[in-house]
Design goal:
Elements lengths: L3 E5 L5 H4 L4 H6 L3 E5 L1 H9 L5 E5 H6 L4 E11 L6 E5 L10 E5 L4 H13 L5 E5 L3 H6 L3 E5 H10 L5 E4 H9 L3 E9 H27 L5 H9 L3 H9 L1 E2 L4 H16 L19
Parallel strand pairs: 1-2, 1-3, 6-7, 6-8
Antiparallel strand pairs: 3-10, 4-10, 4-11, 5-8, 5-9
The chain binds the ligand C=C(O[C@@H]1C=C(C(=O)O)C=C[C@H]1O)C(=O)O.
Ligand ISJ binds next to helix 5 and strand 10.
Keywords: Lyase, Menaquinone biosynthesis
InterPro entries: Menaquinone_biosynth (IPR003773), MqnA (IPR030868)
EC number: 4.2.1.151
Length: 281
Amino acid sequence: MSLIIGEISYTNILPLYYHLDRESLREQGCSIIPQVPSQLNKAMSDGLVDVGGISSFAYAENTNQFTLLPDLSVSAYEKVGSIFLFSKVPIEELSGKSIALTSSSATSIHLLKVILERFYEHTVSYEMMKPNLEKMLLDHDACLLIGDDAIMATWRKAETLYQYDLASLWYKHTGMPMTFAVVAVRNDAIERDSHLVGQLYRSFIHSKSLSKEKNYQPMIQDILKTYGGEKAFWDDYFQGLYYDFSKREQRGLELYYQLAYELGYLIKPVESIHLWGAVES
Ligand SMILES: C=C(O[C@@H]1C=C(C(=O)O)C=C[C@H]1O)C(=O)O
């Protein structure tokens, strides 16, 4: 019995992992692998990771192989605070321009495409690049960064750049929340080790509840040591993120999947979001 657990190496998902009972999971043969979302998405779809946080877009590409753990996500309503388009021109003027996209993302790069193509009717060229604001903007008109790369970039970006929060743009045009990450488990891992998946699930829920109960302290104290910044910034950041996955967040995600499918970014439509233990209707 063992599980390989993926852990997104960005602070946004930390409340789900911070209070995990790592000791007990390790004793039962589990290992935890920290990687950026795009790497975890691939590792999970290749069967190298069994369970963990992944891009919500990656779930849509693997609905036949993955099941979602209920009540867990990284979602945002009016702002996310760590997924930004940095642009040399206002967003309305991006048609015909080139945009560099961070290679660490799957959800946000497709969300940006949906927003620009569907809501602004822009035709834009894209290039995937390693996350680095300065290098990305050398040969491009705009760039998309996520996670801590985006946060750090806001701390040092030039005043001349326009900055757009993708959750705010999505909310403005749809009135819906956006779910960036979900916690998925491979169906073969459920068949093999459902007891351990259950234990891990309860530990995720415990971590989420305890993180909220403690108002994200002492997690923020640790983040300050690693990343710096102001305590007030991190307090505000975590207050703006939602870690539940209620019907409302699911409806927002379904709309995103539908638009991504209509624009050809998903090969198959997502018929339904499959939650572990949920009765199929
Ligand atoms: C909230 C964020 O969401 C992240 C964005 C992801 C993506 O774009 O694929 C994947 C996982 C999330 O942790 C963030 O990057 O800040």
